[in-house]
Amino acid sequence: MLVLIASLAIAADPADWQKAEAAHLKNIRQLTVDFAKAGEGYFSPDGKTIIFQAEEKETGNPFYQIFTMDLASGRTQRVSPGVGKTTCSYFAPDGKKIIFASSHLDPDAKSHYAEEYKQRDEERRAGQRRRYKWDFDPYMSIFEADPDGSHLKQLTDPRGYNAEGSYSPDGKQIVFCSNRGDDKNLELYIMDRDGKNVRQLTHAPGCYNGGPFFSPDGKKVIFRSDRKKKDYLQLYVINTDGTGERVLTDDPNWVQWGPYWYQDSRHIVFAGADHSVAGRPNYDIYWMDIETGKRVRLTHAPGADVLPVFSPDYKKLMWTSTRDGRQPSQLYIADFTPPAE
User: 21: which residues sit within 8 A by CB, 6+ positions away?
Assistant: First the structure.
């Protein structure tokens, strides 16, 4: 999560970009409406619920918390403690547990609120727009809970950044990003579901490796890394035993991140933007065959479109977007038609 939503509204006829999107995305609708901003959503195994991060309005905490939403009723529920920062939530494959990262155990968690509000106020008065940069909070740890947020259990003990976790398809393991207390090395690790038997997956010191997901067949992990150019994320894939690592995108002018697997363990969706263009780059979602490298652009809106994920039946795509480039990010969903080969 180094370089995220950063886009300016671009003069464009809505009919043009909506027509371009209709080839693969139909019945697009906004899911989250009652939050200052929201994003990074994932489906429950039965497809009836989503879990996501959002900033509540006027609560005194300016940072993301974790919520679930019943898709039929639209009812939302906060499932994180409500203190500090949270991110990277995910459902276990059996639907009985969730994980998310939280800094609520930081003894100074609440002291950061005033600092954030002050910075926002200064930027607003100066007419400035902040470039998003993830801070890798040193008190961020991964927690397990029941889907309603009860029975909270800490899974990662070492002080440092531990986040960006997701389950293996069989639910027995969790892959995540951690610096294990070393600020210079953000590597990928795999641990058992209960937090035990931690082993290092990537070995690329001095850079960031994060955002990992197991492939549906359980054989590979896809992730992002800035190992070739700081903050310029590219996509990589590695076997779960640590062998066969290879780069999937390699363009020094682009940031390409947020990959998520399609059901065949061969295709992915991800967000990318060309940072060599003048002004702020505009992120769009792409579909790619990881064997051939062939890609197809899926979104064409003038705002930022990032963090795409599939529903359990792979018939819907959900993602984080500003759509017109003027509003805060929210979650959107659409019926998905895969590009033809």
Answer: 28, 298, 299, 300, 301
3-state secondary structure of 37: strand
171-218 confidence digits (pLDDT tens)? 999 999 999 867 679 999 999 999 999 999 999 999 999 999 999 999
Angle at 135 between CA 83 and CA 91, to 5 degrees: 60
Nearest to 176 by CA among 148, 205, 123, 214: 214
Total number of domains in the chain: 1
Instruction: Tell whether 88 is covered by a domain.
Output: no
Residues near 319 by Cβ (< 8 Å), separated by ≥ 6?
Answer: 285, 299, 305, 306, 307, 308, 309, 331, 332
Closest Cα to residue 99, out of 90, 87, 86? 90
Q: Which residue has the tokens 């492939």?
A: 215
Q: What pTM was computed for the model?
A: 0.93
Whether residue 205 lies inside any domain: the answer is: no
